[in-house]
Structures are given as C-alpha cells and as structure tokens.
Design goal:
It is built from 4 helices and 10 strands. The chain is an alpha+beta fold.
C-alpha cells in the first residue's frame, strides 16, 4: 500500500490534543525508531512491513499531539488494531484522500469533529475493529 492515512483529534469542533503515550501504548512494541527532527516514529512489523508515523506534536508540550499522518501503511492487521485502540481512547477520526468516510471509534466523538471536515469528507462512521478500518481505507 502506498497511500497516506490521517488521524486527528477534535474537541468541540476544534483541533485538540491527547497524550502521546496513547500512541506509544497502541504501537508498542513495534516502534523501532524515533526521528525527533521530523517528529517521526517508524513502526516495523516485519522486514517487509513498516510505516512512518508523522506526529503533530503540541508546540508547547511534546507529550501531547493532535494526531499523525501514516505514510506507507502496511497491510498488517496490527496497524489497524492500533488505530482502533486510539480511536476508542480519544475524540479522533481516521481518514484519507478519496472516497473513504471519516471513521471514529465511538459515537460520542461525532459531535466533537470539525464541521468543515465533516462537510468536506462526509458523515463519519463508527468502526468496530481494526479489520473494518483496513477494509474502508483500502476501498478509497
């Protein structure tokens, strides 16, 4: 796979932050490298399956982030399971360019999303697991 996917957190329609430790817990033990200069974490599942996570860190507090871009998401279910864990723990949405609707892990997240994003990308769907995230992203 060579597309990019995005995860962004919102609170009351505005960009919001959550603890970076949530990402660390979801992707552990697969974080193999951290490139501080680019706020990039490399996640490796096996020799042929890795992705780069470009974190959107809070400029005032690097222990917080508003989300991340996933470059080159691999076809590995552990990646999508980690995304689902993050969606369940935060007011975040996963989306990508194309026909893919934004995805959230809880219905309670929907009122927090940015209305402009919903207008542009469509009404979000509540996903129930990592397999559903992978299927929806692959269809875009």
């Amino acid at each position: 796979m060579s597309f990019e996917a995005y995860l962004n957190c919102f609170e009351g329609g505005e960009e919001s932050y959550f603890p970076t430790s949530i990402i660390e817990e979801a992707f552990a033990p697969f974080i193999t490298r951290r490139e501080a200069e680019f706020s990039c974490w490399v996640v490796t599942y096996d020799v042929a399956s890795s992705a780069d996570l470009y974190l959107n860190l809070d400029p005032d507090d690097a222990s917080q982030c508003s989300g991340f871009t996933i470059a080159r998401p691999p076809d590995d279910p552990r990646l999508y399971d980690a995304l689902w864990e993050i969606l369940r723990a935060t007011n975040s949405a996963v989306y990508c360019a194309g026909e893919c609707l934004p995805m959230v892990g809880r219905a309670e997240t929907i009122p927090h999303l940015n209305p402009d994003m919903v207008e542009a990308l469509g009404s979000p769907v509540v996903v129930v697991d990592g397999d559903e995230i992978r299927t929806r992203l692959e269809q875009s």
